[in-house]
Amino acid sequence: MDLPILVLPYSVSNQKEQYYQYFWDARNRIIEFTKKHNWSYYTTEPFIKHARIFDKKSDFDDELVKIFNLEPETVIPPTYCAILEKESLYIVTPEIYHSIYPEGHEIDSYVKLIVHEIAHHLHIRLLLGNEDSMGPIWFYEGFAIYVADQFSKIKNSLSNSEIKSILFDLQRTSYKKYKMLFEIVTGKIPLDKLVQKAKERDFSNWVYEKINEGK
Ligand SMILES: [Zn+2]
To answer: What is the pLDDT of residue 171?
Structure first.
């Protein structure tokens, strides 16, 4: 995996080294993670070939509208800060990321954000390109949060009814909750098995039964 070609806005153009360091660290974290899970095979090709940094959230939003061919009046969710699409990463600066998503602030949170985006694509590679098999939102977001080790200090405090609602509500909820749920689930079921089963229709049901087994 090589480092991407970077396009920086003028305001941070003197920080190129720092940005390369973020990408270098993110790359190493993915390599470490996949080694641990015997998934090194999936990291031989680079995930990010180009990276474009945005120093205004509105510019980032405009770019998303353009690359996804969205209606011009589309409102991009206020906490969307990064997206990896066709080996190009679009991402806001750390300053903007921390100001619009303070709850994600922790040590190395910007590197973790990059790892999170790569993790979605690792997930797709594990499914041999079958994006539709990534499973429900709690699972694929939980997977990326888990790979990136985001919210590493947060301990599980979910009640059984909260677990149920995260598993069965189709609405997005907070990433902190996905992190907590994912920790419970991976404590009971091996990650590779979860990745393979997530496409099944009764996946969330199956997970719910597994985590309640013996209770
Ligand atoms: Zn994500």
So the answer is: 79
